[in-house]
Design goal:
Shape: elongated
Number of helices: 7
Strand content: under 5%
Structural class: mainly alpha
Keywords: Membrane, Mitochondrion, Mitochondrion inner membrane, Protein transport, Translocation, Transmembrane, Transmembrane helix, Transport
Order of helices and strands: HHHHHHH
Largest sheet: none
Organism: Homalodisca liturata
Helix content: 55-70%
GO biological process, one term: protein insertion into mitochondrial inner membrane
Low-confidence stretches: 1-8
Subunit structure: Component of the TIM22 complex.
Number of strands: 0
Subcellular location: Mitochondrion inner membrane
Length: 189
């Protein structure tokens, strides 16, 4: 009498008709429905660390266009505020007709605050605009090279200069693209 109590999956071959070769193939290829812990990855320099799903999720969040744009906006705001503080301390505003009147500390601080906010908003806008355009171009092209920054600089400079007319847009695009290319070259060399 034949014992039919064993599961059917043990008798079925998955990869090869020979049971020995089938077991060998199952060992190396494995069952796709279970988590494999015996993955062998050749290493060249140093140990190979497989990222967990949480690490991959965090990395994808940091590499997203929204995060890059937000961080560029925040960094631009901070840099603009610092430059505004420096600018207002070097070049104080003197109202015509009141050259001899000394300003109070409150007036000086109010003026510094206004200059800092003006610079900060402008730098934040330019940083966010450049970063969003560069990320969109990089996503569209599917490459990460120096051309993305150059194209993004051209588009950003053109859009900023467009407020003053077409000639200013062309000059702004050329200038910002050249500046972006030089900065990218300097940062990567």
């Amino acid at each position: 009498m034949e014992d039919n109590s064993k599961p059917v999956s043990e008798h079925q071959t998955l990869f090869h008709n020979d049971p020995f070769l089938d077991n060998l193939a199952r060992y190396f290829i494995g069952n796709n429905t279970r988590y494999r812990e015996n993955i062998i990855i050749p290493r060249t320099m140093g140990p190979v660390v497989i990222k967990t799903n949480e690490e991959k999720l965090i990395e994808a969040g940091f590499e997203s266009c929204a995060f890059k744009t937000t961080m560029s906006c925040v960094a631009g705001f901070g840099l603009g505020a610092a430059l505004g503080l420096f600018s207002s301390s070097v070049n104080p505003t003197i109202v015509p007709g009141q050259e001899l009147k000394t300003q109070t500390a409150r007036e000086i601080l109010r003026e510094m605050k206004g200059t800092m906010l003006s610079y900060a908003k402008n730098f934040a806008m330019v940083g966010a605009m450049f970063s969003a355009i560069e990320c969109a171009i990089e996503t569209h092209r599917g490459k990460s090279d120096w051309r993305n920054g150059t194209y993004a600089g051209g588009v950003t400079g053109g859009l900023i200069g467009l407020r003053a007319g077409v000639k200013a847009a062309v000059l702004g695009a050329a200038g910002f693209a050249a500046f972006s290319t030089l900065i990218d070259y300097y940062m990567h060399s």
